[in-house]
Design goal:
Layout: H1 25-32, H2 35-46, H3 53-66, E1 70-74, H4 77-87, E2 94-99, H5 105-112, E3 116-120, H6 131-143, E4 147-151, H7 163-173, E5 176-180, E6 188-189, E7 192-193, E8 200-204, E9 218-222, H8 225-235, H9 257-268, H10 270-288, E10 301-302, E11 308-311, H11 316-326, H12 356-362, E12 365-368, H13 376-389
Parallel strand pairs: 2-3, 2-4, 4-5, 5-8
Antiparallel strand pairs: 1-9, 6-7, 6-10, 8-9, 11-12
InterPro entries: DegT/StrS_aminotransferase, PyrdxlP-dep_Trfase, PyrdxlP-dep_Trfase_major, PyrdxlP-dep_Trfase_small
GO biological process, one term: polysaccharide biosynthetic process
GO molecular function: pyridoxal phosphate binding; transaminase activity
Length: 392
Amino acid sequence: MPMTSTAAQLHPAPAFAQPIPFIDLAAQKARLGPKVDQAVQAVLDSCRFVNGPEVTKFEAELAAFAGAKYAVSCSSGTDALAMLLMAWGIGAGDAVFCPAFTFCATAEVVPWVGATPVFVDVKADTFNMDPASLEQAIAVAKEKGLTPKVVIPVDLFGQPADYDAILPIAARHGLKVLCDTAQGFGGTWNNKRTGSIGDATATSFFPAKPLGCYGDGGAILTDDADLVAVLKSVREHGQGVDKYENVRIGMTARLDTIQAAVLLEKLAIFEDEIAAREKVARRYNEALADIATVPFVDPRASSVWAQYTLRFAPGVRDALAKALQAEGIPTAVYYRIAMHRQPAYAQYPAAADSLPVAEGLCAEVISLPMHAYLDEATQDKIIAAVRRAVGK
């Protein structure tokens, strides 16, 4: 795929009259109409703000959507990751393998429990965890005297990781597979929904996610009933028979009833929104493939397009962002610094001294507006502006 080679080719144009939203939550709310307001009002009327019936209903519907036996809702995607590590007893001396090209939360939770994150490079086509680099990272962890315990593949930008390769590696080395589908919930791998792959899945309902609430929220999905019992204890201060018996160290990580009520309404239209996101992504790909490296989706996968991310040659990306900003078109860079180069994480081991794919992506990627309500006229304006900016 082509990548524009020089920033000098960028040509800004006059700004549009109205700035274009990066993610249009207002359009989604307009589609839902009074349903969300009514759902929230029902919670207000009941005064059951914590552990109300909407939470239980949402967990059941979420599990059914994903094809998992159980869902345990919680306060954020980050807490979902941490709860699983706590429930599995991960701690000092244990190695947890994380991709280097991801949001910090994936690795952030590992030091919380006293374990060591070990960073893995990603694949150049999907940006997801590279199985070959994972094997190298496992060897490095063992050399350093760490015990490999968990691998956290990330379903980055909406596309599931290569589970056909990762699951056998995990099985050979006795690793738990914690799927981080904060960006990928609703996607599929070999026709299986994310949430029904691996030992357990953590997801996020942050408002910008494909399935988002009106604040923070998250969930864990699994088929393991024993794990669910421990997770519910962890979620409620490590409680035993009741909240005043504490059988383990826990946290407070409940999903608010109001957020569950909002998510029930959004889950009802989620399938339609996934299809709409796919349509937007296809139009972008068709219009921009000759001037940029457009996203690649593995034929075994389907994406929910949490982000639509292009690659341009180093030096072009930032100038393009500036040119689009001048036209009222927002962009974002996910991510500018690879995890193993972040100051807070530089002390931790990686599969190699350099993880070249992750490091290269940080200089090249840029994301365009992407949501289910991006109409063709607005999309055409964005496409035209990108082409104009790079002189095409």
